[in-house]
Specification:
Blueprint: E1 2-6, E2 9-13, E3 15-17, E4 25-27, H1 28-34, E5 38-46, E6 52-66, E7 69-81, E8 87-88, E9 115-116, E10 119-121, H2 126-129, E11 130-138, E12 142-147, E13 150-154, E14 171-174, H3 180-188, H4 200-212, E15 214-215, E16 221-223, H5 241-255, H6 259-274, E17 278-281, E18 294-298, E19 307-311, H7 337-344, E20 349-355, E21 363-364, E22 373-377, E23 383-388, E24 410-412, H8 415-431, E25 436-441
Parallel strand pairs: 3-10, 4-7, 16-21
Antiparallel strand pairs: 1-2, 1-6, 4-10, 5-6, 5-14, 6-7, 8-9, 11-12, 12-13, 15-16, 17-23, 18-19, 20-24, 20-25, 22-23
Amino acid sequence: MIDSCHLGTHFRARALIDSGSEATFITERLFKLANLPFRSIQAQVSGLNQTVSAQSTRLCHVSIRSPTKPGLQLDTAAYVLPELAGRLPSHSIPQDILRDLPNLQWADPTFLQSSQIDVLMGADILPSVLLSGTKTNICGSFFGQETIFGWVLTGPVSISTSNRVSAFTTQVTKTNEASLHKLLTKFWEVEDLPSKMVKESDSVCESNFLRTTTRDASGKYVVTLPFCDPDHCGSELGFSRSIALAQFLRNENRLRRDTPLNEQYNSVIQEYLDLGHMREVSPTHNSPNYYLPHHALIKHESTTTKLRVVFNGSSPSANGTSLNDVLHAGPVLQSDLTIQILKWRYFKYVFSADITKMYRQIWVDPKHTPFQRILFRNKEGDIRDYEMMSIARPISPSECCNSWLMTSIRRSNSQQEDKLTIQELVTALNSAGFPLRKWTSNYKRVLKDIPNEHLLHAEFLNIDAESTAKNPAFAGEQPPMSSTSCPQKYP
């Protein structure tokens, strides 16, 4: 017996382990009942004698848990079929046949009863299911295998208890074959974009964001870190200060070989203190915390900040667990770049801006800042402990803590509309502490009210067809723009 989980809801189902199957399958009944996310496919399922037994048009994402071990979970893709094995065993088995069964934790306590099979677990997840325990000669003819769900039995019940034999060996072949009629139909149809599979962890992150996010007196957002186990935040982390200290000293030795780079690195960290994005704390060992190793990232092509400080949330603590291991990564929130470009080409006037120090404009709830500690030398040369008050990038959930991404890109068909949009955008984002900089446009009059120091280039003029701008700055040639004109090149 297993639990199929989606969006916090559990559906009990009976599963069959089939080592001869290339893939995992699920019945359409359970698929619809759990309302599982899926994507459309074309696949043929064949079995014995290479006979095509079914066609699958959906591949869904399913999370499988053990009813007796709720903390254990398998995430896999499963092909959806109308039916699998029907009812197994073929008939209910009399209790007295297995009266000498050993006292083991069975994966299905009701395995003697014939009932519907809704999940077939194939070789794709078999290594994650089977454990090392085995027992032979159970009740004289059965073989016992230990699994993560409990023990399972294999073997003959009797010589002639049924005229029906069930056998399972499946092969999946993805195909693009279609009849000429379907091909011609699709040629004229506007196809829907493929649906994205929604992970349960993504829904948890969104729920956490909506439930816990607040704003302080200045209007800035205050977020919490999306821990996988919110009731025991970070308790599974081991000590990390000594590991972070060793990495800090190694990084410091490398930086000292390049004096200008070392001075720039120290000034960036000092800016965190000067802006109140970091505070000094005392080392503690009686409560969960985590120390982030950090190093320099050089971006020579950047028009503003050439050096960035990167915080490593994947560094393992003393017990091998890192901060990213205990946090939900969250969904990818950036808009599809191809779609953005296609939409942009419909408009005559476009402009773009960047949010200054985007991740550092959002505060982290004080109860979670102990998980964003770093080590750094103060001005007196002593190594001290600090806590990051804003989001430390790139820990796993940093993107999902910024659900408003890409709001600064706009298109319109009139200069007046663009100017009004700019005013509204600046007012709205300033109220939340998100100042906009690196402004650029395909027409200079759109940005005539923007200070020169806020432009992508202070000497901003009309952007020609050979100019470039780093994403998210989309710019093009001076209007009017024809439908055949090409957008500017950009990295």
